[in-house]
Design brief:
The structure is a homodimer.
Chain A lengths: L7 H18 L5 E5 L6 E4 L4 E4 L3 E5 L6 H20 L3 E2 H12 L11 H15 L8 E2 L5 E3 L2 E7 L2 E6 L8 E2 L8 E6 L3 E5 L2 H9 L2 H4 L2 E5 L6 H12 L4 E4 L4 H12 L17 E4 L4 H4 L8 E2 L2 H12 L1 H4 L2 H13 L1 E2 L12 H11 L6
Parallel strand pairs in A: 5-6, 12-13, 12-14, 14-15
Antiparallel strand pairs in A: 1-4, 2-3, 7-10, 7-13, 8-9, 8-11, 16-17
Helix pairs in contact in A: 1-2, 2-4, 3-4, 10-12
C-alpha cells in the first residue's frame, strides 16, 4: 500500500475518533456534534454575500434509543472515509454505501444500511461537523462542466503528475473533475476573466470562434446546473481576482444556475463560501436585450408556468429583492410571459453571440 | 471568410439543389426523396448484426398542398446546412432552428418554423436522404462520454491542430466530442481492446487504479446511454480490430446501453452500422455472477417493474432471442426480480472491480 500524503481530513477524522474513545474511557456516552442542516438554520450572510448555516447544532449520542442507530451509522461512515484516505483511493457515495452494506450487513442483527438514502445525509453531517468537503474524504461526486482558456493546471493523481493546458484541448475542452483542490494546483492563469456559459452548445460555438483566445477569458460551461467541482473551480478562479461573468437563458433554469454560482444553494449551505462566488455578475439574457437587439423580439418564446412561478419566488428572497435591476428584470418576465434563450443570438449569424458578449462587456451591461 | 475544405456533404447538398433546379427548368415539380424512417421500415440486418432501414421511400413534392410546406422546410434546412459548411462554422440543431426562424419568419405569411419539433425530423430526413450524418452537416450534437488509454488523436479544429493523448489526461480523461470523424484522426492506437463502463463513478475508480494502463485497454464511459459521438468512436475503434467489451448494471438501463452500442437503436436505424458495433460483447453484471462471487448475494437490490418489463420486451426481439445465454440471463432476472449494480463490486474492497474484470476477461466469460 502506497503511503498517503498527510491530509487535514485524516487528522480531523482521527480526532473525532479519539474524542469518542475519551468519552468511553470516562464512562460517558460518546457523542457526535454537527451543524443543523435544515432550512431553519440556513441564512444569507450579507457580509459575505452567500448562504451559510447558522449556529444551531445537532447532537447525537450512543446511549439514546432514538439516536443510537444514527450515531453508529455516522461512525461507520467516518471509519470508511478514514480507510479510503489511508488507502489513497477514491470512490463514489454509491461505492461507500456498498462498502458499508458489505462489511456491516452480516455482523449486525438488523442491516445497518438498507438504502443509500440512509448514508447520504450522514456524509453531509460529517462534512459540516469536520468543516471540510466530501471531496476531501476521497468521495467523488458527479463530474460535469468543460473548460477552455489560458489556464494551466497540475493534476497529481494516481502517483503521476499531469500538466493540463486548457488552451490546448481542441474541440473537447478540459473536463472539470470532481475534486479541484486535493492534488490539483494552478500552474499559471494568464486569462483575465471568466465567462460561464449555461449551455454546452453555446460553449462549442464560442470555442470554435476562439472567443476565449480573442478575449482572454476562461470559457466554462457547467452544462446546466454547475456541479460541486465546477462551482469550486469558479470560486478558485475568483480567488485569483478574475471577474466572473455568467451567461444563461432568462428563465427559471438559467436564474437558478446563476444564483447557485453566486450565493450557493440551500442544500449546500453547509459549504458556505467555499463553493459560492458572490462577485459573479450576470450578462444576459435579459429583457433589456429586447430593446437593444430588435431582432430578438421575433425570437422570444413563451415563458412556462415554472418560469413565472420561479420569478415570483426569487422576488421573495431578500438577497435578490435588494437588487433593483433584478426586481425589474423578474417583474418584466412575469408581466410579458416571454423568455429569450441564449441560442437565439445565433439567429442573424452564428458568430453574433460573440459580438453580443463583447458589446455588453465593453459597456459593462451586467445585472448584479 | 476562411475557405472550407472540400467536403462530400457540400457536394451532396449542391447536387440536391441542382436536381431541383433541373426539375423546375423542365416545368416539373421539384421533389425530395428520402428513406422512410418510421418503425415499419426498421429491420434487423442479420448479415451485419445491426438495425437499419429497409427499402421504403418517402417522397415530398412542391406542387402538393399536403407536402408543399414540408418540402419548403426541408429545402430551407438543407440551404442552412450548406451555408454552415461554406462558413466552416458549426451550430446545434437549436441554433439551426433560430437561424430558420430569423431568416424566414418575416418573409412568409405564416411562420415556416414555429417550433423546433418541426425542424428536427427534417434534419433526420436529410441525413437519410444524403446518406451522411448531421455531424457532416456541421450540426453539433450532445457530447457525453470520457476516454483514457493508449490512444492518440489529431484534432483539426478552428484552424489549429491539437494532439490529444488519452494516456495523459489525469483524473479527467478526454471528453468525447460531437464529431469524431471530420477533422479528427487517430495518430496511434497502442491499446489492444476497448472497455466501455456504464457509470462515470466506475470509470473514475478504474482510472485511479490505472486499469487501462495495466490491461492496455481504451477505457470509455458513455456516462449512461452513449451519445452519437461516443457510439461512433467505439465503432471506429472496432474498425481498428480492437475487441469491444461492455460493462453495465444488469437492469433495463444497462441492457439498453449495451444493445444500443451493439445493434444501434430504432431511432438511429437510418445511420445503420456507422454507429453500431455488432462485435461488442457483454462482460457483466450477470445473474451468473451471483454463483461465482458469493458476496454479491447480499448486495443485490430489488429489480424495478421497469427492469422486469424491459427484460420481457428484450426477449421478444429476434436478435436477442437468438442468443441462448441472453435468454437465460433475462429470464433469471424476471424470475428472481433481483438486480446487481456494477458499484456493488466495490463492496469487499475498492480495487475489486478491476480483479473481477481481469478474471472474466481471462476466462472469456462474456454474453454475446
Amino acid at each position: 500500500m502506497k503511503m498517503a500524503e498527510e491530509k487535514p481530513a485524516r487528522k480531523k477524522l482521527e480526532n473525532l475518533g479519539a474524542e469518542m474513545l475519551d468519552e468511553i474511557a470516562k464512562d460517558e456516552s460518546p457523542h457526535f456534534e454537527t451543524m443543523l442542516r435544515s432550512k431553519s438554520n440556513v441564512l444569507y450572510d450579507e457580509a459575505i454575500g452567500c448562504l451559510r448555516l447558522g449556529d444551531k447544532k445537532e447532537i447525537r449520542t450512543f446511549v439514546n434509543v432514538a439516536q443510537a442507530k444514527k450515531f453508529m451509522q455516522t461512525v461507520a461512515v467516518a471509519a470508511k472515509c478514514k480507510k479510503f484516505l489511508d488507502e489513497d483511493a477514491h470512490t463514489s457515495i454509491r461505492g461507500l454505501f456498498y462498502q458499508l452494506k458489505y462489511s456491516l450487513g452480516e455482523e449486525m442483527d438488523e442491516e445497518l444500511f438498507a438504502e443509500q438514502e440512509e448514508s447520504n445525509p450522514l456524509i453531509e453531517d460529517l462534512e459540516a461537523a469536520l468543516k471540510l468537503k466530501r471531496e476531501d474524504l476521497n468521495l467523488n461526486t458527479d463530474r460535469k462542466g468543460v473548460v477552455a482558456g489560458s489556464l494551466v493546471l497540475l493534476d497529481k493523481f494516481g502517483g503521476e503528475r499531469t500538466e493540463i493546458d486548457c488552451a490546448k484541448q481542441g474541440r473537447s475542452g478540459w473536463m472539470v473533475p470532481s475534486d479541484v483542490d486535493n492534488g490539483m494546483d494552478f500552474i499559471s492563469v494568464d486569462a483575465e476573466w471568466v465567462l460561464v456559459v449555461e449551455k454546452d452548445a453555446l460553449w462549442q460555438r464560442l470555442n470554435e470562434d476562439k472567443f476565449w483566445k480573442k478575449e482572454n477569458c476562461v470559457l466554462i460551461t457547467p452544462k446546466g446546473q454547475a456541479s460541486r467541482g465546477c462551482r469550486r473551480l469558479i470560486r478558485k478562479l475568483a480567488n485569483k481576482k478574475l471577474p466572473v461573468i455568467v451567461f444563461t437563458d432568462n428563465d427559471a433554469w438559467g436564474w437558478y444556475i446563476y444564483w447557485t454560482i453566486k450565493t450557493g444553494s440551500m442544500n449546500l449551505a453547509y459549504l458556505g463560501n467555499d463553493v459560492a462566488t458572490p462577485e459573479a455578475r450576470f450578462i444576459g439574457m435579459t429583457m433589456q436585450d429586447l430593446k437593444d437587439y430588435d431582432f430578438l423580439n421575433k425570437l422570444t418564446i413563451k415563458a412556462k408556468d415554472v418560469d413565472v412561478k420561479r420569478a415570483e419566488e426569487l422576488l421573495s428572497y431578500p438577497w435578490i429583492a435588494m437588487h433593483k435591476p433584478w426586481v425589474a428584470e423578474l417583474k418584466s418576465v412575469i408581466k410579458s410571459k416571454r423568455k429569450i434563450e441564449q441560442d437565439a443570438l445565433q439567429g442573424p449569424r452564428l458568430s453574433f453571440v460573440g459580438d453580443y458578449l463583447r458589446e455588453k462587456m465593453a459597456k459593462k451591461k451586467f445585472l448584479p
